[in-house]
Amino acid sequence: MTTRESLVFRSDVTVELVKSSASDADVLFAARVSTAGEQSLEELKKDPERSKGLINYLMRDRHGSPFEHNSMTFFIGAPIFVFREFMRHRVGWSYNEESGRYRELQPVFYVPGEDRKLVQQGRPGRYEFVQGTPEQQKAVTTAMEESYRQSYAAYQDMLEAGVAREVARATLPVGLFSSMYATCNARSLMHFLGLRTQHELAKVPSFPQREIEMVGEKMEAEWARLMPLTYAAYNQNGRVAP
Ligand SMILES: Cc1cc2nc3c(=O)[nH]c(=O)nc-3n(C[C@H](O)[C@H](O)[C@H](O)COP(=O)(O)OP(=O)(O)OC[C@H]3O[C@@H](n4cnc5c(N)ncnc54)[C@H](O)[C@@H]3O)c2cc1C
Question: Annotated Gene Ontology MF terms (predicted)?
Fold first, then answer.
């Protein structure tokens, strides 16, 4: 038996940094082993300007591996369609997501907020998004909420009839919220951000879907706080992962 739940409609995403071991010093000791060997840790506190210069040099010349000696774990809540895009990022990422087989999925669904641009103009690769009219906004909200209600009711009907969760979930849409832990390092995060955010400093523009960009922006804010010199060098060098 399941209890009939009321639906929750959300237009935001959540990103929480749950665990990290990440600082600019992690880049420096890894890089300085080249010249200082086992003394590279002692070199850390010597000269901040030199440290800044070294990080910038590594970023500019794309010496990427020193940016891998750190770790950040995020707990992310977002619609399934965002996770489908997210998990295409294979290198330097670890994922664990909630299961639709082992737990009853909660009725939390994505409905775009008023600031989400609804209308796409132009040809593939050169899209521009513009604000929808109030009528379009209403059409989107009404259609999505109605569809979510129907599909979640069908899901619950099947569960009540004794059907397994893994079978019944097929009726649920990609606007359903899911949750996952995603662990990465600064290098893999930079590659992700280069593809999944738009930024005026980006040397190579990308055109990500807004909802994954919303996740990316929150991750970026956490990372910037942990590794300010690396973050500054990333922006200074056109947001290209080294
Ligand atoms: C705007 C946008 C639109 C997209 N549209 C589509 C779409 O329509 N359809 C679709 O299927 N995907 C689409 N994607 C996903 C895209 O093709 C990539 O799968 C995704 O961005 C992950 O990038 P990545 O492979 O570079 O990352 P990662 O998997 O993290 O790989 C990082 C880097 O490692 C190297 N690497 C990883 N695996 C290999 C390999 N097997 N061989 C050689 N080198 C490797 C590459 O240098 C790669 O850049 C889109 C992505 C973006 C940003």
Answer: flavin adenine dinucleotide binding; NADPH binding; thymidylate synthase (FAD) activity; thymidylate synthase activity
Separation in Å, CA 119 to CA 90, 127, 137, 146: 31, 10, 10, 21
How large a percentage of the chain has pLDDT more than 70?
93
| Catalytic residue of the set 62, 196, 210, 225 | 196
The answer to whether position 193 is within a domain reads yes
Q: Whose CA is nearest to atom 31 of ligand 1?
A: 91
- Within a domain: residue 37? yes
Closest residue by CA, ligand 1 atom 53: 195
Residue 87 CA to ligand 1 center (angstroms) comes to: 10
| Interval 88-136: pLDDT, tens | 999 999 999 999 999 999 999 999 999 999 999 988 777 789 999 999 9
Q: What range does the domain containing 133 cover?
A: 8-236
Residue 165 φ then ψ, to 5°: -55, -40
Overall number of domains in the chain: 1
**Domain holding 165: CATH number?**
3.30.1360.170
Does a structural domain hold residue 1? no
Tens digit of pLDDT for each residue in 213-241? 999 999 999 999 999 999 999 999 999 99
Q: Do the Cβ atoms of 206 and 195 come closer than 8 Å?
A: yes
Question: What one-character-per-residue DSSP string does 208-227 give?
Answer: --HHHHHHHHHHHHHHHHH-
Q: Tell me: the pLDDT tens digits for 7-23?
A: 999 999 999 999 999 99
Q: Residue 215 gets which letter from DSSP? A: H
Place 73 in a pLDDT band, splitting at 50, 70 and 90: very high
Concerning whether 165 is annotated as a catalytic residue, the answer is: no
Give the whole-angstrom CA distance, residue 57 versus residue 46.
18
**241 within a domain of the structure (yes/no):** no
